[in-house]
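User: My advisor, Dr. K., asked me to get a structural model of this assembly before our group meeting. I'm new to this, so sorry if the format is off. These are the inputs:
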Amino acid sequence: ASTLAAAAQQSGRYFGTAVAANKLGDSTYVGILNREFDMVTAENEMKMDATEPNQNQFSYGNADRIVNQARGQGKRIRGHALAWHSQQPGWMQNMSGTALRNAMLNHVTQVATYYRGKIYAWDVVNEAFADGNSGGRRDSNLQRTGNDWIEAAFRAARAADPGAKLCYNDYNTDNWSHAKTQGVYRMVQDFKSRGVPIDCVGFQAHFNSGNPVPSNYHTTLQNFAALGVDVQITELDIEGSGNTQAQQYQGVTQACLSVPRCTGITVWGIRDTDSWRASGTPLLFDGSGNKKAAYNSVLNVL
Ligand code: XIL
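Assistant: The format is fine. Below is the predicted structure of the whole assembly, which you can bring to the meeting.
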């Protein structure tokens, strides 16, 4: 196969990218998007601040631009993200208690209902675990509404969009020996044992020298999959360049391919210049849209 999507499809997987609505007029960007990718995540446009800027007033214009472009090209969509401590609208940031819990659940229900039937997988909850060695939850206004906020969000999402896969998504959960990874694992294990509706775990996979691709990545993905969930690489980018970067991209790709329930890989942007990273060259295409060594290393093993 000669594109990432076609190559991933050979094993029944997808290859996706984050898309920004304000770049859909850039013909180089859209050309690569249409050619190479078969799954799309809105980079910011489906987040809480974008979709509910005022309480109970929903705004889907930019998200719809991405969804309609993708569906028009026969691509599928990952919905990102229904509930998160970050990128909350101002009205929500200082809420607490029952009012916040109900506002969060209403948001999950409204957004998942609006897109019902159009989303392959929702990131229902994003980044709810703490960094460091605690293995516990991140403190946030949502966490302070009660430890059951995550399962409540998943139940609301299932009721609103029963055909979509429901994912928990986080970063720095790639290394099996890290406490954060273990904390998420225990939550998924608990959800599965109690029948809380969860179908998948997303690994953001933002890598750099301080957080390198772990040599045990296959183990992490396999152990989560063994709980009875799909796993997905959801926001892949890797700082660096040249052959070193290409080898790391290849390692992540092989880790996914080695786990039957790893259903696909999404990179967090198209060209290096599209990256959310302030500097560096973490993606598969250079600023001019040329394929990098990392691109070829991924395509060669898919
Ligand atoms: C980032 C976007 O790429 C930026 O444009 C935005 O300013 C901040 O958010 N984890 C996530 C993504 O789940 O939503 C984040 O996206 C990157 C980290």
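One thing worth pointing out at the meeting: The chain has a mean pLDDT of 98.

User: Perfect, thanks a lot.
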